[in-house]
Amino acid sequence: MPPRVRQVFVYNKTKETFLAFRVNVADSILSRLIGLLGRRSLKPDSGVWIVPANAIHTIGMLFTFDLVLIDEDFKVVGIRELVRPFRVTRPIFRAESVLELPAHAIFKSRTEVGDQLVIERYEVRKDVDASQVEAAIQEGESRSLQEQVP
Q1: What pLDDT, on a 0 to 100 scale, did the predictor assign at position 1?
Q2: What domains, with CATH codes, occur in the chain?
Q3: 3-42: burial string, b at 16+ Cβ within 10 Å, e else
Q4: How far apart are the C-alpha atoms of 37 and 50, rounded to whole Å?
Q5: Which of 79, 139, 143, 107 is nearest to 15 (CA)?
Q6: Quick one: average pLDDT of 115-130?
Q7: Distance between CA 89 and CA 52 in Å, rounded?
Q8: What predicted TM-score, i.e. pTM, was given to this entire model?
């Protein structure tokens, strides 16, 4: 059985924009080694978060993409736009991890060095019972009535 792929979203808190909504976490030796190899492209709003890493190679890649290097506090310490196949990036030693994103993601989100990112995983919400919703509405109505009475 293949390992379950964990996904996170990436939000630029400084610019109040999203970089990606479906970013796969590559934190094992094998997943970090593979990264984006074998893919023909990245879907919009997707990417790969390689942890730990401070540089990458694009040998064997088939497409151009953007690269965001972040420190342990999720602060952007380096950006590389339109990284082409068959390249090796210079390491940024302050970087703890690397985000590989679709081409132009940096431009669209206006991300710059120094920006603060938020990286969180999705929380699955449980189905809410109709009776719970009705009870919450009634409770809200009774509170508003109590506030109106002097």
Answers
A1: 41
A2: 7-148 (2.60.120.1140)
A3: eeeebbbbbbeeeeeebbbbbbbbeeeebbeebbeeeeeb
A4: 13
A5: 107
A6: 73
A7: 15
A8: 0.76
